[in-house]
Amino acid sequence: MSPVSSVNPGRPDRLLLVVEDEPTILEFLCEILQDEGFATQAMLSADEALRFLESHPGQVRLLLTDINMPGSLNGAGLANRVRERWPRMPVLVMSGYETPQSSGIRYPVSFIRKPWTIGQILDSVDDALNKAEA
Predict the structure, then answer these.
(1) For the chain, which domains are there?
(2) Residue 67: phi, psi to the nearest 5?
(3) SS3 per-residue string spanning the chain
(4) Which has fewest Cβ within 10 Å: 30, 68, 105, 108?
(5) pLDDT tens-digit readout, 81-128
(6) How many other CB atoms sit within 10 Å of the CB of residue 99?
(7) Is the pLDDT at 29 greater than 70, yes or no?
(8) Could you tell me which residues come within 8 angstroms of residue 63 by beta carbon, excluding any fewer than 6 positions away?
(9) Mean pLDDT, rounded, for 11-25
(10) For residue 125, with 0-12 CB atoms within 10 Å meaning exposed, 13-18 middle and 19 or more buried, which class applies?
């Protein structure tokens, strides 16, 4: 799950970083977003996602991450680090158990509760991108 999908190779502003530790959900999310014209970078852990962001800081348009994940960094920690280092990058977090507040996210982020529908995830991505541009 490492290579960047080349759905819109000429549009780096359309790259979404998708972080989810459940491979089936990760693949489904990327497929949904690619069908809407986004390029996606799939990551199975927040640690891996942070390393990608540090080496490609200007390429990612939005971070979409689950909150609860194994590793030294979970989705809440990743959201905090992204908002500290790249405050203009929109962050959309999702969880069936936590909220941004209960998970320790200290910055404004968009949130979607699991389970979501395809329409809800697409609307949430659009809303997060539109808020960032406002």
Answers:
(1) 12-133 (3.40.50.2300)
(2) -85, -50
(3) CCCCCCCCCCCHHHEEEEECCCHHHHHHHHHHHHHCCCEEEEECCHHHHHHHHHHCCCCCCEEEEECCCCCCCCHHHHHHHHHHHCCCCCEEEEECCCCHHHHCCCCCCEEEECCCCHHHHHHHHHHHHHHHHC
(4) 108
(5) 999 999 999 999 999 999 999 999 999 999 999 999 999 999 999 999
(6) 12
(7) yes
(8) 16, 17, 19, 49, 53, 78, 79, 82, 89, 90, 91, 92
(9) 88
(10) buried
- Note the pLDDT tens digit of each residue in 52-79: 999 997 899 999 999 999 999 999 999 9
